[in-house]
Amino acid sequence: MAEMNFSNLALRDPQVSAKGAKSCQLISKPQNEKVFMTLGSKSEPLRTPFGATTYGDEEATRKTLEFSLSPEQHKFWQQFDEWAVHYLAENAARFFKKPLTKEQIREQYKSPVTQKGEYRPMLRCKINTAGGTPVRCWDENDNRVDLPEDLRSYDLVPRVQISHMWVMSKEFGWVINVNDLMVRSQPQISPFAED
Question: What percent of the chain has pLDDT over 70?
């Protein structure tokens, strides 16, 4: 897992879209750069149990892609969440027009990681399968390849951008975009092979 200096992270002032959606871009100081990171590696790839999905299975080119996290990766995102809660509490007046305590922030904060029962924690990302900025796919030799139809049977190494924080009236959270994706077919092992 890539190291990240949380003290360099900052949010720009809120912007409101034509549709009224409020968001704040995440940047890395001092150069005010976009925040990119690679999840996993060729030797320790990630997997997705559900593939790229849309709400209600509607046809869309922007989909949700959830990755199973290792304990080490989960720990990183817990640290990211702690940074976010602390930062938002310190700067609440700028983002929410009123002071908020860490407890109040935690009540409204939607982590990008979800966990159900004993299952592995999952990092929720967005992926564009077509359109103006579709995900770029690569094989393990760094050659461009097409996006597979079903990502569930592949080992994956996503390069993501932690793009921005969305803000609604009672909750807020992160948009993490998958910009590049290394895809490698999972080895097929016969269940009948002799031990």
Answer: 95
Taking Cα atoms as reference points, which of 132, 146, 143, 142 lies closest to residue 177? 132
The alpha carbons of the chain give a radius of gyration, in whole angstroms, of 18
pTM over 0.85: yes
Write the DSSP assignment of 141-154 as a string of letters.
TS-EEPPPS-GGGE
Tell me how crowded residue 142 is: count the other CB atoms within 10 A of its CB.
8
If one counts every other C-beta atom within 10 angstroms of the C-beta of residue 116, the result is 8
Give the chain's mean pLDDT: 92
